[in-house]
What does this fold into?
Amino acid sequence: MGYQESWVIIRPQFKFNKLIQIYEKQRKAGFYDDIYSTTPKSIVILKQDIGKLAAGTKALWVCGERCWNDEKHIFNDLVSIKLFCKIEIIPVENVFTSDIALSEGAGYDEIVNTIKQRSDLYTSGISFESDAVPSENAFIKRYTMEDYLLKSMSEKEKGR
It folds into this structure.
């Protein structure tokens, strides 16, 4: 066991709002009050490519016990679009270091320092407080779940 932060990415990306709908349904039902669930904390949108993830990619940023970072503990098996979609759950350190070539035989210190440098680079200026307003840097824009829900609802209203 151990604490893990991961990004949940759905492909094709136009199905991302389906994940948001599932999150909202589960939140209202109290699913995330259970200690065995993994709660989505933020939504990030890439402003630039990061490794193999293209600019514009949207992801849920989840935090929880390492053994519970799976679809069952994030969505309570409600991801009913599996036949048409692929859901990836990627540890954040893998996202931030996916484009790094470490020297052969890299030692523990080199690996840890590289991960820290990349994490600092990609998250510099981003506020992770639960009540923070949206924040961004050159690489990502981060919303709290509530801010993104409000943004989505106001965009729906404008579209009517």
Notes: The first helix runs from residue 16 to 28. The chain has five helices and six strands. Strands lie at 3-11, 39-46, 58-65, 86-91, 135-136, 140-144.
